[in-house]
Amino acid sequence: MINLKIKTYENLHETFLVLFFITIAGGFQDAYSYLMRGKVFANAQTGNIVLLFKNIVDLNFKASISYLIPVIAFAFGVYVAVRFEYAIEKKILHWRQYIVAFEIIIMIIVALIPENLNNLANALLSFSCAMQVYSFKKIYGLNFATTMCIGNLRSATENLSKYHITRDREYLEKSKKYYTVILIFGMGAALGYITSDLFGIKSILIAAAFLTISFIILFFEERGK
C-alpha cells in the first residue's frame, strides 16, 4: 500500500514521477509553439537561433524578430529563476512550486492570446520553459533537461558506450534513464501535435494540467508498499 505524507521538499523534485509530468509538458510546449504559434520553438532555442540568422541573411527582419523574441525571453527566464531561488525562503511552498505555479498561470494566459499576438505567446512560453529547465535539472542525482533532448541524448549514449567498455551496469542504468526521459519528451510532443489539431490554441491547457499534477506531487512523499 502506498502511503503519502507531507514532504519537506528535500530532493522530491528529482523523483521520476515529478520528472515525468514536467518533461511531458516540456515536449508538449515545443510542439504547441511550433504548430500553433508560427513555427517557433518554445524550448529548442538552437533551432530558433538557426532560423533567426537565416532570416537575417535573407533580410527578412520581421521573421527575425519572431525568432529573436523567444531567445531573449528564454534567457530572461533563466535569469529570473536564479534570482527567484535566492530570494524566496521556504514558508508554505518551496521555491520550485512557485515556479510551477507561475508556469501554469502563464499557460492559461497563453491559451487566451489570439494568433495575431503569437510573438507575445511565444515569449511567455519560452520564459516559462526557461524557468522550468533551470528549476528541474536532476533526477535521482543525475543531470537532466526536461525541455530539450540534445544533452540527454549525449549523456544517454555516453553512458551506453561506457557500459560496453567497462560492463559496469551503473552506466547502463544511467543510459536507460536518459533514453526514457527522451521518450517521455517525445510522447509530450506527440500529444501536443494531436491535441493542437483538435483544440487549437486552447490545447496548451493540457500542458498546464500536467504541470498542475507535478505541483500537487511536490507536496507529498511516496513511500514504499
Automatic annotation (TrEMBL):
Pfam families the UniProt entry points to: DUF1275
Keyword Cytoplasm: no
Keyword Transmembrane: yes
Protein name as catalogued: YoaK family protein
Keywords: Membrane, Transmembrane, Transmembrane helix
PANTHER family (alphabetical): SLR0142 PROTEIN, UPF0700 TRANSMEMBRANE PROTEIN YOAK
InterPro entries: DUF1275
Record field: transmembrane: 12-29, 65-86, 98-114, 178-195, 201-220
